[in-house]
Amino acid sequence: MKIKLFYDSKYRYDSIAEMQEEVNDFIEFRDVIDIKITSEGAENGHSYMIMVLYKETRGLD
Predict the structure, then answer these.
(1) What are the CA-CA distances from residue 3 to residues 17, 37, 54, 60 (Å)?
(2) Are strands 31-42 and 2-8 parallel, antiparallel or unpaired?
(3) How much is the mean pLDDT over the chain?
């Protein structure tokens, strides 16, 4: 099992949409086990993270 993290600290509609496109492109040909999504607020702004758990596949990783 492998983990890939996607992180966005800008937390704007367009930046989140761009990150979602990256995730979609990444998982298209992978055997995904689970996806976890979290957002966190802080004094200096927000952050948004997606963690993809997937099985290792030959030739893609």
Answers:
(1) 21, 13, 6, 14
(2) unpaired
(3) 86
Cα separation, 35 vs 17, whole angstroms: 16
DSSP state of 13: H
Cβ contacts of 58 within 8 Å, gap of 6 or more: none
Instruction: Supply the DSSP string of 30-55, one letter for each residue.
Output: SEEEEEEEEEEEETTEEEEEEEEEEE
Model's pTM, two decimal places? 0.77
Instruction: Give residue 24's pLDDT band: very low, low, confident or very high (50, 70, 90).
Output: very high
